[in-house]
Design a protein that fits this description.
single chain, about 375 residues, alpha/beta, Rossmann fold, four-stranded parallel beta sheet, about 15% strand, elongated, binds beta-D-glucopyranose
């Protein structure tokens, strides 16, 4: 994977920057005046290294910030909330001028962010919104509702109801599905779920689709911490309760994340549904274009994923950080969608793409996100 270099930020160490922190909600004495890029410290807090996407995000943000001349403190928190809180405290104590934060629990960082605001440190929420606080200044993310729509569209395409242009094919066979959602403490999970369920609704309403277990409310189908083993266990329980231990008909599963999809696939394979879609594995969606799952798509095991180019998200975060470093406001393209319970956070939203077997080459390999060898081996180099 080429993780950096989408775009060089036009700043060098020699450029004098006014870290005026104009956009900062805290807006106190901290940080003002001119500083050279290398004197600006950016703290980058990422949730976990257990999922490849966050490693790629961390690498891309770090390298792009460094190219722009900033000093970077990148930390991963192992999906442990107190650890992330501690890392943020430490970054602030160490003199961070700007924070970029991908939270684990979107409501657990209020104390840290209040402290940041009191020191005039702008906070950029990265990919996941930080909720219940005034002290978040900007949000860079993908259009999360649309990601959910795309997950459902990919499932509907795999089931034959939509064609490759996502137009209805006219198929009116009745099929059985199950639904999984992401972590209830991650604001994105509800957006994905809502986008997906709104898209599936007409098919559920007219009976072309049925959720075999009847389980469709968010709390029941959510997966704490997006955990693969938790998803595998829920699928195993469903196979026992609803699918006669593996002989019952199950055509598709809505899955919100590649790690969750891999857990579900393991459960299905163990229950005898086969090892490929051709052999009888239900059609599965995903998210993040993780390399292990891209290989599974290539091999006809998983049907689709959603590609969110982490390099572009990193560039958006670095642009926002640079704006604050220059004493100006980052440019938002959405000032309505992301209400964190206290305020609507100005956001910059990026677009995502559906990847089935047919899109691996044009979207993932041609853009140098993954190489052909990586796709063949399923391992990032
Ligand atoms: C991200 C997804 C990711 C999930 C699990 C979400 O907040 O937006 O891209 O699949 O977390 O890591």
């Amino acid at each position: 994977m080429k993780r950096n270099g989408m775009r060089m930020v036009a700043l060098t160490g020699a450029v004098a920057l006014g870290l005026g922190l104009a956009g900062c909600s805290g807006g106190s004495e901290g940080g003002g005046g001119d500083a050279a890029a290398e004197d600006i410290q950016v703290g980058v807090a990422m949730p976990t290294e257990t999922s490849e996407r966050w490693i790629a995000d961390g690498d891309a943000v770090k390298s792009q910030l460094e190219e722009a001349g900033y000093e970077v403190d990148l930390q991963f928190a192992n999906d442990d909330i107190p650890r992330q809180q501690q890392q943020l405290d430490q970054m602030i104590t160490n003199g961070a001028d700007i924070l970029i934060v991908a939270s684990i629990d979107g409501t657990a960082l209020a104390t840290q962010l209040e402290n940041a605001a009191s020191k005039g440190i702008p906070v950029i929420a990265y990919d996941r919104l930080i909720n219940g606080t005034e002290d978040v200044d900007f949000y860079v993310t993908f259009d999360n509702y649309t990601v959910g729509v795309q997950q459902a569209q990919s499932l509907l395409r795999g089931l034959g109801y939509l064609d490759e242009n996502y137009e209805e094919t006219g198929l009116d066979e009745e099929k059985i599905i199950e639904v999984f959602a992401g972590s209830p403490d991650d604001n994105n999970a509800t957006f994905f779920y809502n986008g997906a369920m709104d898209t599936l609704k007409p098919f559920l309403d007219d009976g072309r689709l049925t959720i075999g277990s009847g389980q469709d409310d968010f709390d029941t189908v959510s997966t704490l911490r997006w955990d693969q083993a938790t998803a595998q266990k829920r699928m195993e329980d469903l196979i026992t309760s609803t699918y006669d231990g593996g002989s019952g008909q199950l055509d598709g599963v809505l899955s919100p994340f590649d790690g969750i999809s891999r857990g579900i696939i393991t459960a299905l394979e163990n229950a005898g549904y086969g090892s490929t879609i051709e052999e009888g594995l239900p059609v599965l969606s995903g998210q993040d274009a993780e390399i292990a799952s891209v290989k599974m798509i290539e091999d006809g095991v998983q049907y689709a994923t959603i590609f969110k180019d982490t390099r572009k998200l990193a560039t958006a975060a670095v642009d926002a950080a640079s704006a604050y470093a220059e004493g100006s406001e980052p440019e938002a393209n959405d000032t309505e969608s992301y209400d964190n319970g206290v305020k609507v956070v100005p956001s910059f939203l990026l677009e995502s793409d559906i990847v089935t077997q047919a899109e691996i080459q044009p979207l993932l390999i041609d853009s140098e996100y993954w190489t052909e060898d990586e796709v063949a081996s399923g391992v990032a180099e």
